[in-house]
Amino acid sequence: MSDPLFARLKQLIVDTLKLEDLPAADIPDDEPLIGGGLNLDSIDALELVVRLEKEFGIKITNSEEARTALASVARLAAFIRARAPKDKLPA
Amino acid sequence: MGQAAATCATLQAGTRALEFRPVLGPDGGDRVPLAPLPGRDLAETAPPDWLPAIEALAAEIPPAPWGAARHPVFVTSSNFGVGNLYAFRRTREPAHLVQATPSASVEFLRRRLGWGANVSLLSHACVSAHIGLLLATRVLAAGLAERALVFTFDFISPFVTGGFHALKILNGEMPAPYSARAAGSIGLGDGAAFAVLGRGPGEFQISGQQIHNEMHHFTANQADGAGFRACLAPLASAAAGRRLWIKGHGTGTLEAGRLEAETLARLFPAAPLVSWKGSLGHTLGSCGLVELALALAAIKSGRTPGSVGSTAPCFTDTVATESFANAGFDGVLLASNAFGGAHAALLLSHD
Known about the structure:
B: about 350 residues, 2 domains, about 20% strand
């Protein structure tokens, strides 16, 4: 059974960055988001950070923390699980 | 701000002008390092609360028919009155429009300060002042002017501070330019300065200038430092035989700071490198001229301020965290970088 947080994050990436030709399920769990197959750059990262902060009620304090959090979908999920209020996480 | 000697003295003492203040001024928000003019709280007023400072600075410009055919004025800024544009959007008060666009802002100043029509407006993010100096130099070299005035200003506003905060580089940490830390941070400050340039010999000479744009990315440099090399390498040749110190850009971000410091150390291995943005904050488009004024004050005082706020370990051994005596040096390299991959540098020589 897939992790609902992983699925939510992948859909959020597709929606936020308007990746219209990419099914969310096709985003790998462990590949780099920045500079990897998706070829996201720092501006994309900024858009994601803004959306993630709003959706999950978390705070990313500096650009290095953003880079660490966005290392992969799996790393992002772990980052959010460690910081988000429980009621913000998908069941 | 017309007080370069006093500001230089505070830098020599290692004092920070930056203080933690709400990022959105009167509207609050996270506390970040800011250095507005004394008395400014980033409130969006019309006319803007920085106008008296501009007028006080302009009063120190040597008299000349500025704005006449052979006395051109180059006004540079990265923001002009963008804070007023944002204020107009929020309040719909027409008074904000007087300074809300670059052309309106410069025209307002032109009339207020009594300049003629020969006033040019230049903007290229944080290398704006360098561009102004370069064009002024070229106009003089072409015999098109007797003297040229370069005037620069950048005053922070909630629009500007909010934008850098959204990028996560203006955050809850004080900047430490060129320090090898886990996370980077910048500060933002108000800045304004002017320079009068003429032809012929003088106490200080601009003996080289260079600009380059990487055209790589809005907010990132080429990872191999090629952009920095393209701008700085030609000036290494021009500086041959001189003993230099370097005033770098050094905002406090990590990647750009590392690339800059490493490139400068390779090209100028004997030149101590300083950045004063750890104290003053980044004064954005005005930084090239504000920091040139401080460099001149440092030369006249005999002591170059170190990189206030920076501590070892640094990216290179050439970074000077403490102030040092500058007698025996006969030149300064001043460098700035900007969003969009712009680079600018100026070689200042003196006897």
